[in-house]
Protein 1
Amino acid sequence: MDIERLADGLGAAEGPAFLPDGRFIFVEIWRSRVSVWTPEDGVQTHAHVGGGPNSVLTCSDGSLLVTQNGGIDRDWRAADRRPPSIQRVSPDGEIEIVATEIEGVQLSAPNDLAFGPDGVLYFTDPVGGFDRVNPPDPGYIFSLSPNGTGKVIAEAGPTFPNGITVESDGNVVWVESFTRAVRRYHVDSGKVEDVCVLEDPDAIPDGLKPATNGDLYIGTVLTGGVSVIGADGTDKGLLKGFGDYVSNVQFRGSTLYVTDIGGGTGDDSEYHGSISRTELEGVTGLELFPGSIN
């Protein structure tokens, strides 16, 4: 497997996506921005959203949705804190807040997001910081309908719900970093299924995306790689060599793009996050479902 490093020196790269014109975008948490990468210009600012953007998603109307954690990431604090929220970035760069609470629950640190086939937006809110030893506060899985109506999908408990994605049948899968669990929400029944628990203690799951064959590609932070898990929870191996603290993944056909936080404490002299990509033989990523929030 050949890995191409696209950019280094990034401020905690996370939550990748693609613009309608095919440009690769991602968030830099510690630079409070959505960044864009092109082969011609490298990494540039696409939108400064303040606080701590944790993931970005392109909408069918050309706008972007951003999970805004408020501006806290371990020891790092943003210079311009923002309310924990879902933000919208319009095509002309205007930034507005879509939601700060769902069914009376104040958002704490929204993390990752994905649309379902009916245009419903699902996102995680882990509540509090991550610690490998001490259980976090109970987190949540939320949804937002296209008209902006919110719902609590699940109370995840003290597990640090993190990356979230939607499978081809519309069911929602998320990972929990503290327990290393992969869980599936069956949209029709409302039941939550335990898919598996990643065995390797260093395989702390972060962001994930499905392939068309149902396999889940999960960025596992301390492995420096991407763990591949079958839809039934079968361990199918680890793709290694993407960075120090792999945070998330995104497919473009058979090309897998990977973001790496890079470690450090948030001091800009220590920024060494990165973005990389590799071609996967015989694997195609599932295309993301379209959607927008009015």
Note: The radius of gyration is 17 Å.
Protein 2
Amino acid sequence: MRRVRSASLATLVATALTVVSLTNATPAVAAKKPPTITVLVTNDDGVGAPGIDALVEALRKVKNTKVVVVAPATNQTATGGSTTPGPLTTQPATTASGYDATAVQGYPADTVTAALDQLGVKPNVVMSGINAGPNYSVVVPTSGTIGAARMGARRGIPAVAFSQDNRGAMQFPVTAQLAVDWLKKHRAQLSKKPKVAPTTITSYNVPNCPSGKPRGVLRVAPAPDLANYLVPLDCTATGPRPTTDVDAYNQGYAAVTQVPLDD
């Protein structure tokens, strides 16, 4: 009997220690939800254009992402960084797919001003596009797509511009996916307040390759001129890797450049 009692006592002690251990255990830390990123989307082709529609439809599917659309009421192609003095006229609108937007009676750069100063939008990033037609080399100063992105960067907000080849069937969804990829890659950085104001914007120029997508993404320098502008698109070109945006674009690459805020 003594042995039985000893075994029982030992069992009781072990059980008690287990209970104490479980009681004092540190609770599991719940997984922290990623912060929501606010993307201000604009363009220069107008709020109803197919390019901005493709961009918005892609971005709105990204988790923990708030998409705010503020774009020109009408086509403002080739208006560069022009701005309108005084208060801007805005009105409710929708994209081609019916996503809620705000239309601005003004230039592309005005849309950023209206969003920040009149509508109270506080974006983590400005995405401008997708433009129908390239905005590279010496075309940059006249591009409203670039002008809107530059305005965002001048206001201290990281900004990206997206432009699509207008030769052949437009492949807007391909460029929209590149925008999603860029956002995912930079998400952690964007969720924090920038320590230094941006000094450049990122600009994508994406060709329409017969395969349905570009052959890759290349970071290149802006071409000094449009000498090769009319070279036919060749998405299977061989030879040295291109080093300028025009050549990369003509050889089937999505050309990515860093564009300064001033010409």
Note: The two ends are 97 Å apart (CA to CA).
